[in-house]
Design brief:
By secondary structure, the protein is mainly β. The chain has three domains: about 90 residues, Immunoglobulin-like (Sandwich); about 100 residues, Ferric Hydroxamate Uptake Protein, Chain A, domain 1; about 45 residues, no CATH class. Strands 3-2-5-6-9 form a five-stranded mixed β-sheet, with no helix packed on it. It has a five-stranded mixed β-sheet with strand order 10-15-16-13-14. Strand 19 and strand 20 form a beta hairpin. The N and C termini lie far apart (about 55 Å).
Length: about 290
């Protein structure tokens, strides 16, 4: 009986040690900064609100005793920031965030009533001052309008400085001189690489129309990424507006350059039709998903 109990206690430990490691990744952005008054003194207890324009999601925090605030777990997209405190005029500022963005926004409040609002129209800086990583991001507009003879994500990577295709006819990419096993890719935080040589094992990377944006990080990545080259894809999410698209990606030999070593152009016409749709979930007289379910 004691031997059976020992086996019962050891078996879960063995299974735990034998379990493969899981890489925790995120696509959310973060805003951080310090709120001060006109004299440069910190303002503790100031309220900071961030509202996602398309979904109307609202995030709110309060500055600590040294005037510092941090708002995490933010979806990519446009936000309206509002800073206000008792005895100060409110400040409103617009900011555009991309996946994994770490944006610092320091605000100076002026004395006045909270009903008076100061709107900052210059916009926030596009440079990350809180991280030393080297990255490049492209949104859905760039993906749809760049003049490339393809509808696959990996051909867009060649437009990022420092990313080149591996030699010997390999389909893999090298990031700032990385090796084949030093790159990873994820869609909405879920890895789609095989973990050995960076080969993608999911067909979802070919559906460019479903991408909201993609981001390439090539150096000084954060702790959740173990690779030198990290490709992060964020899929489109719903908004309060009903929207969609229909397209046909048409490719003809007249649009393709002739190989300089070939006397004729390549032949073949391709059609890649598709579409997309999104919006809030609404069931008449039963459920209204605006601001909640998309």
């Amino acid at each position: 009986m004691p031997r059976f109990l020992d086996l019962l206690l050891v078996a879960p430990l063995v299974l735990l040690l034998a379990a493969p490691p899981l890489a925790g990744q995120t696509t959310f952005a973060t805003i951080t900064g310090i709120v001060t008054d006109s004299g440069g003194a910190v303002v503790p207890g100031a309220e900071v609100e961030a509202t996602h324009v398309k979904s109307n999601y609202r995030y709110a925090v309060v500055t600590n005793e040294v005037g510092h605030y941090t708002i995490g777990q933010l979806r990519e997209g446009e936000y309206v920031l509002r800073f206000h405190a008792q005895g100060f005029k409110a400040v409103v500022q617009h900011v555009e965030l991309v996946a994994q963005d770490l944006r610092r926004i320091d605000v100076r409040l002026e004395l006045g009533t909270p009903e008076t609002t100061i709107e900052v129209s210059a916009g926030a800086t596009l440079i990350e001052t809180e991280a030393a990583r080297i990255s490049d991001a492209k949104d859905t507009r760039a993906l749809n309008t760049l003049p490339l003879n393809t509808r696959q994500l990996w051909d867009y990577l060649s437009l990022t400085p420092g990313v080149v295709q591996a030699g010997a006819g390999s389909a893999n990419r090298r990031f700032s001189g990385s090796r084949l096993n030093q790159a990873d890719a994820s869609i909405d935080g879920i890895t789609v690489s095989n973990g050995r040589d960076g080969t993608q094992v999911s067909p979802l990377v070919s559906y460019v129309e479903s991408f909201q944006e993609f981001r390439v990080d090539m150096a000084n990545n954060t702790a959740e990424f173990g690779a030198i080259g990290q490709v992060t894809v964020v899929s489109k999410s719903g908004t309060n507006e009903l929207h969609g698209s229909l397209f046909d990606y048409y490719s003809t030999p007249f649009f393709r350059a002739r190989n300089p070593f070939s006397p004729t152009r390549g032949s073949g016409i391709r059609h890649l039709p598709g579409g997309s749709a999104g919006g809030p979930v609404r069931i008449p007289k039963i459920y209204d998903g605006r601001n909640r379910t998309f």
